[in-house]
């Protein structure tokens, strides 16, 4: 899966879970400030990403996820490790 495909899938998941129009999501979107997520939303998103992509995201990695770009970068790295 290339980065663009990964971003599209991540954006779809975020749009669905946070009830945000997909066109409002780009890689620079801040999960809390721009997309209205709270800590519970972030936890839910991480669980969905783990299930969807078959990866494990550690607690210390979750703390570093602030933007959509952070998510795409992390998932891209994890998918290459497998």
From TrEMBL:
GO molecular function: acyl binding; acyl carrier activity
Subcellular location: Cytoplasm
Key words of the record: Cytoplasm, Fatty acid biosynthesis, Fatty acid metabolism, Lipid biosynthesis, Lipid metabolism, Phosphopantetheine, Phosphoprotein
Pathway involvement of the protein, from the record: Lipid metabolism; fatty acid biosynthesis
O-(pantetheine 4'-phosphoryl)serine PTM positions: 39
Function field: Carrier of the growing fatty acid chain in fatty acid biosynthesis.
Protein name listed in UniProt: Acyl carrier protein
Organism expressing this protein natively: Fervidobacterium nodosum (strain ATCC 35602 / DSM 5306 / Rt17-B1)
